[in-house]
Amino acid sequence: MDGILNIYKEAGYTSHDVVAKLRGMLHQKKIGHTGTLDPDAVGVLPICLGKATKVCDLLTEKDKIYRAKLLLGTVTDTQDISGQVIKTEELCCDLTEQNILPVIQSFVGEYDQIPPMYSALKVQGKRLYDLARAGLVVERKPRRVQIMEISDLIISMKEKTVDFTVHCSKGTYIRTLCYDIGEKLGCGACMKSLQRIQTGSFKIENAFKLAQIEQKVQNNTLEEILIPIDRMFSHIPKCIVEEEELEKLLLNGNPLHLSFQGEKLRIYHKNGQFAAIYKWREEKHLYFPEKMF
Q: Taking the model in full, what pTM does it have?
């Protein structure tokens, strides 16, 4: 089975748990996810099946939109509410909605974010979370991330919480953003909850829980929600190879001489089956395969 499923990851599952459960449901080994969500986080997690695993990296690169809640006055070792509390502070009387808002909005744009110790990034071949669990803290290089927009803010001084929607680039840690906001406010903060509502073109309103997927498998209706691979490339011009000679070249992944124009082409066999993405190389005056499916 080849294609992409828009999964709603529920709390308590890791992204790898979701993949493992789908392997059991679908009896298929070749499955990959497109961006890790922490166990407590929920929301959109596109899952690639079969040949679609070749676009996992493409989907991981897409912008993300989250709905988050941060808790003011609490700092934890994991930067979220599930971690061990390191510090708590009472909110000072001059901390108000009026001075919280500009601090949060100051993060819109590019900034250098230091990845949290509890993350899957590797330093000298070791996962940071393994080092953190061993009680070690190592230096992490800051990474440039981009916050396109922070909107829909709801501040509750009574609950010490701030709800907000954030549109950000790949690789942005929202719990670290919450921590950084707390540092800039001077009271500390951690992430209380997180929901990913969109990644690329995949939206939460069109996502399916694992129980719903299982029901569709039992009813033999999974194909109804399986997204074809070529839909990920709908912005690229389509080209159907009909000549027998070109068809043979395509089957072997050879360069093609085509009359079409465009930096990239979405190539199909004459029977309508999606075959590949080809890219024009000016120096050769030919199209060369970029991804074969």
A: 0.89
